[in-house]
Amino acid sequence: MKKLLVLLVLLSLVLGSAFAQGTAEATADSYPSGPVSVIVPYSAGGGTDLVARALVDAAKASFPKNIAVENRTGGGGAVGMSYGANAKADGSVITMITVELVTLPHTGTGAGLYYDQFKPIMMVNSAYSAVTVQANSPYNTLKDFLDAAKTKTMRVGNSGVGAIWHLAAAGLGKTAGVSFNHIPFEGAAPAITSLLGGHIDAVTVSYAEVASQVAAGNLKVLAVLAPERIAATPNIPTAKELGYDVAIGTWRGLGVPKDTPQPIVDKIYSIFSQAAKSDAFVKFMNGSNNIIDVLDSATYGKKLATDNEMFKALIAELGLKQQ
């Protein structure tokens, strides 16, 4: 009798597992069966928003029930990413996760956010900081700007406390031995608007985010905080070659809640990896000076873990932990 009971229990477990797997696969086969939201944790018009919208537009044919971008700002990206992490784990909410996923927790501004709350789908692109000032600024070189910072307080705009462009400015300041007045905004776009209005002295956002204003003659880039010169801007020097050994940048990608079934994750990856290769998306990225840098789910997951440890150490070194 006891053996019979054990056999029945084992049989029920096997059948239950097979049923669950079959259900997940069936769900993946029918995905997407309803509307899908893509959460962007920063304001409209910034780099993350524009990349997300271009990618979603390239993938929209695969979402017959509609797919839409939703901006949820606040906390340097913590508000939107926390919303996405706690959404229903069925693929109906996809989040544009950024490097802040592994910086904010270590500055004490992550509001409980942590990278393992997500199952990464794919990385989409990467970008490095560009030290940018008004076109009519008296500072024509990075040295001019940093020398001035030794005698006056420079107001440098970023995309939020603990966000990557805050870390970029702080890292540059530490390397150069100067301090900045860091001014946080809810994304790069409002920071750039403030710079254009003369309310701050500089921004340290990505080149792609200032490129249109540089082309219009309103802003100028003094240097990029990259390991080497950016292909799209070969005439702009790196801080490193100017004597300041600092390279800090962002990445952007897609993630879903950690309990999302793997077959659905695979289906989403299939859709968006194809979209990232589309002529329309490639044309947009090239035209906006954005670097396409695709990693699959497993490789992206390893990068999250590695970068989490790297930024933990950097933030401690810079003394940016909020009390």
UniProtKB/TrEMBL annotation:
Signal peptide per UniProt: 1-20
Cross-referenced InterPro entries: BUG, Bug_dom1
Keyword tRNA-binding applies: no
A Pfam match: TctC
Keyword list, A-Z: Signal
Entry's family note: Belongs to the UPF0065 (bug) family.
Protein name, UniProt field: Extra-cytoplasmic solute receptor
